[in-house]
Specification:
single chain, mainly alpha, 9 helices, globular
């Protein structure tokens, strides 16, 4: 219980700081919708960890079934995925054959995330509960998000310069995808040390994600 409380409390605090930063420097100032969606992603992380922390404090453990905290994680990575896929990807990728190799290579990220999850949790699938099944749904959403973060790290920015400008943000977001996958694996298998380490990594990434994006997004008007 102690590790769970500490880990989720730290993530809660840093995601709250990241969200408030986004409110004051992005939402209030009417920044582009892309940036607003990342702020909402941080809000979902905040809700997710807040719910789990309350469960630890009230019941002494995280629920072993589907719960609101999982919905929060889903929402977080759905916002990150939607922002990249719906607003940025079409500015960089015109669908031409010359960039096909980048579209293929970027599938490595989701394959690693899904493969890692299945590989470390394979024995649990012999008697899957609702928590494992829901975590699989979360992993699939994280995998989709990771594809576009990785794609926008390696994709050549030949026209608008938008993708090149926010590569630092996409690197941080990709690390967030990987760290969350590791934390989920640790939660399922009871690896408390790994859970703590992944949680503190997520905390740091939540703290810097929006400031890095805001700083890099200002380059859009300078390219």
């Amino acid at each position: 219980m102690f590790i769970g409380v500490i880990t989720n409390a730290v993530i809660l605090c840093t995601s709250l700081i990241g969200f408030l930063y986004g409110v004051f420097f992005i939402l209030i100032h009417q920044r582009p919708l892309y940036l607003k969606m990342v702020v909402l992603a941080m809000a979902c992380m905040l809700v997710s960890r807040g719910y789990i922390l309350l469960q630890y404090l009230v019941k002494g453990e995280e629920p072993a079934v589907f719960h609101v905290g999982m919905l929060g994680l889903m929402g977080c990575f759905l916002f990150l995925f939607s922002a990249n896929y719906g607003m940025i990807d079409r500015l960089a990728d015109d669908g031409s054959m010359q960039f096909m190799r980048y579209r293929i290579v970027c599938w490595l990220a989701p394959l690693i995330i899904v493969g890692g999850f299945i590989g470390f949790c394979l024995q649990k699938f012999s008697n899957p509960g609702s928590k494992l099944i829901t975590y699989l749904a979360v992993i699939l959403i994280i995998a989709l998000s990771s594809r576009y973060h990785f794609k926008h790290l390696i994709f050549p920015d030949v026209e608008y310069g938008v993708v090149r400008a926010i590569r630092g943000y996409n690197a941080v977001a990709l690390l967030l995808c990987i760290s969350t996958m590791v934390m989920i694996i640790a939660d399922i298998n009871g690896y408390t040390g790994v859970y703590l380490g992944a949680g503190f990594t997520i905390s740091l990434l939540c703290l810097i994600l929006i400031p890095i994006l805001k700083k890099e997004a200002t380059k859009w008007t300078k390219i």
